[in-house]
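sorry for the late reply, my laptop died twice this morning and i had to redo everyting from scratch. anyway the thing you sent over, i finally got around to it. pasting the sequence first so we're on the same page, its 373 residues, then the predicted structure underneath. double check i copied it right bc i was rushing
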Amino acid sequence: GKAYRCYCTAEELEARREAALKSGGKPKYDGTCRERRDQPAGVPFVVRFRSAQEGETCFHDRIKGPIVFNNEELDDLIIQRSDGTPIYNFVVVVDDAEMGITLVIRGDDHINNTPRQILLYQALGYAVPEFAHVPMILGADKTRLSKRHGATSVMAYEELGFLPEALVNYLARLGWSCGDEEIFSMADLIEKFTLDNVGKSAGVFNPEKLLWLNAHYIKTGDRQRLAALLQRHLVAKGIDTNNGPNLEAVVKTLQERARTLVEMADGAVFYYAKEIIADPEAVAKWCTAEARPGYEAVLSALTACNDFTHAGIESAFAGVMSATGLKLGKLAPAVRVTLTGSTASPSVYEVLETLGQERSLERLRNGLKLFAA
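ok and here's the structure:
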């Protein structure tokens, strides 16, 4: 038959392996039970595949090209454990064949499994599929990507605030070329992707490139969808988005700046804060006695503003600048500090419009206490 029982113990196999290594041989199974006919009762055994011992196993990889293995280099692999459960190389052959798989695309770390699987396909009477082994992804140090290089699972990147379209775009482009284009939607990839342009060498994972792509997809993304995705990150921070401005309006002010949804969530926190805790350095720099008259003029103008839109707010500031001779660079920083707690935020006009008149004026009035006497 094409399979046989092997009664060799783990200790026996290890001893033979060490002996083979000491003598300069390869540590493969030596075929002790290959021709054994007795079946001792009560003795545990595994089932091995009787692999070809002569000739070659060849296949044409759709990416790597022709690959040849000498059969004498292959041993009789185990296809069933002693507890009766089957081994991966056996199961995957049966599963793929029964599902009618005609092309197997996988990482090139599986190349050495391929000749064994081809022999199993042939022994079981199945048609052998085509194979395409894509190159592995390496870290910046040119070693195989692992947890020490950072996140390596799809779910981890979701938690870090990456959009699925950015990750798909990046991974597709990492091992595949299509001219100088960098941005590919799913529809583009379906239309243009072919195995012919997949590279043979490993790609090096570049986190900054992924961030750049993610920022692009956030910047150009649908605000309603981004708002729904952002809400989950804000809820994780304990933020109640029902107590504050419309989330889509918040996204509008942040999507030009944020590279990830986590960055966007960090930037959105001040919109929903019950109390603004201002950065002491920002307060010391901008909330000065000298700046107070201009600040009070802005507060007065915004209180009287009947059109609290971007255009109306800009007009109110223009009136203050005309009346006081102060430039926006002198007026806006203190306003931004009292509205957001820091000097890093979206445009002060956008922040005011998004917060709304009532909440903006409340914060601006509370901010008066930050000014030096």
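The chain has four domains: 3-134, 147-219, 223-272, 280-370.
thats about all i looked at so far, will dig more tmrw
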